[in-house]
Amino acid sequence: MKKITETIKIGNKSPPEHIAESIIFLKKHLDENLTHDYASVEDPAELWQALKERFDNQREVNLPHALEEWKNLRFQDFQKVEDYNSAVLRIVSLLKYCGNPVSEAKMMNKTYNTFHKQLHFVPKIYRKCGYTRFSELMVAVMLAEKNNELLIKNPNSRPTGAKAFPEVNATAIENSERRN
After folding, report:
1. Name one Pfam family in it (predicted).
2. Rounded to 5 degrees, what are φ and ψ at 84?
3. What percent of the chain has pLDDT over 90?
4. Residue 58 CA neighbour count, 13 Å, CB half
């Protein structure tokens, strides 16, 4: 790896075999379209500089979109906690890449402040729990979501007062054991 980093420096005096290794390595890891664009470049430093000029602006290009996504992100807009969590982590990662890191406290406050207004008491409960990390908060909210799904599912699985249906497979196994 040290050989490659030396060969991409402008004015390098690397041996020809290191230069050849570096150009092969760099071209091997290029997207197919880029391989065609830079097929004639044989100097690793020149290739590196061309790629740097072409792609080094991605932070500036992506920053406005990432900031807009962060500004419009609301917990209440997601059906599942897992989807919200993924969106937050994706946006935070992009903001960090763009040079605007988001603290754990900001991530948690974004979550607390964007619950639906009918659930105004829920953020208070989570704040009182004293979570210090966004991941801890998400685990607690996901657990609450799963428990809520079970609470809704259980009463609807059969009418009140009715006995649970026996498992079909369990009955079939018992009957086959009796025959033997």
Report:
1. Retrotran_gag_2
2. -65, -45
3. 48
4. 9
Six-digit token pair at 118?
């009918």
Query: Is the pTM higher than 0.90?
Result: no
Residue 180, pLDDT above cutoff 70? no
Token digits of residue 161: 């007062």
Fill in the amino acid letter for 146: K
Residue 142 burial by CB count (10 A; 0-12/13-18/19+): exposed, middle or buried?
A: middle
- Residue 107 CA, distance from chain mean position: 14
Q: How confident is the model at residue 133 (pLDDT cuts 50, 70, 90)?
A: very high
Which range, of 73-82, 91-100, 146-155, averages the lowest pLDDT? 146-155
Taking the CA atoms of 132, 129, 70 and 87 in sequence, report the sign of the dihedral they define.
positive
| 100 contacts 67 by C-beta, under 8 angstroms | yes
Indicate the length of the chain as a whole number.
180
In sign, the C-alpha dihedral spanning 75, 81, 83, 86 is: positive
Residue-level pLDDT at 178: 60
User: What is the distance in angstroms between the CA of the first residue and the CA of the last residue of the chain?
Assistant: 68
User: Tokens for 57?
Assistant: 């602006």
